[in-house]
Amino acid sequence: MRSELFSSENLEKESAQAGMRLQNSKMLKIELNGEAMARVGSMVAYQGNVQFQALGSGGLGKFLKQKLTGEGVPLMKVIGQGDVFLAELAKDVHIIDLEPGDALSINGSSVLAFDSTLQYDIRMVGGAGMASSSGLFNCVFSGYGRIAITTKGTPVVLNVDAPTYVDPQAAVCWSANLQTGYHRAEQLGLGTLLGRRTGESFTMSFAGQGFVVVQPSEEPPVLGSGQQQQEGGLLGGLLS
Q1: Distance of alpha carbon 231 from its chain centroid, rounded?
Q2: What CA–CA distance (Å, rounded) separates 76 from 73?
Q3: Residue 190's CB: how many other CB atoms inside 10 A?
Q4: Which of 2, 13, 44, 216: CA 20 to 30 A from 178?
């Protein structure tokens, strides 16, 4: 049997070292020897002796925060020995290595998988709590290990060496040490009063030393109702 389908670029990539690696730009391969954390429903194939254990959002505290904020990662634990292939709606997959002292703030919808050695929590995004119905809360990862994230299309990585502003629905992740805030991008005037809008009423601002990853697409708002926004505001006060 012959076909371009069976070309070397489509064959499974083998490695003698356990852990995460890209099978291709849309698919993550975990050569599992122990355990890893993955997004619920992201497994597309596996080989070997592998089990999947549901974890909700990663514990009771995180589960309650996720219910109030709309943020978080629905998780499963992947356990055993074998090869596990993960993907999410054919999004682009990127692997980031975190080292001790690193911390990454990331939109929960962009998390695909991460090493169980990493820690994460759900925190309020500073300065944006009253400005937007999306991106109010993010997942902050720290520790030592690898995390795989997804983007809709090829992203740009902005080095924050000047005042930087990003649509909160396009911001995938950023250095957790950056200072975030609110910036009105749309100028108020007669056109605004007449209902003419640019669709860019506000942006997130970033300052400090670090980077911001921006995808060429906007995620839908996380919080969809006024009640959820109120609950999020209440939780923000509890977390601050």
Answers
A1: 22
A2: 9
A3: 7
A4: 216
**Please, which residues bridge with residue 95 across strands?**
148
Contact 47, 30 (CB under 8 A): no
Say whether pLDDT at 181 is over 90: no
Which one-letter amino acid corresponds to residue 148?
A
Q: Do 108 and 71 form a contact (C-beta atoms < 8 A)?
A: yes
List b or e across 47-71, with b for residues whose CB sees 16 or more CB atoms inside 10 angstroms: eeebeeeebbbbeeebbebbebbbb
**How many percent of the chain have pLDDT more than 90?**
49
Rounded Cα distance between 236 and 240, Å, is: 6
Pairing of strands 103-106, 156-159: unpaired
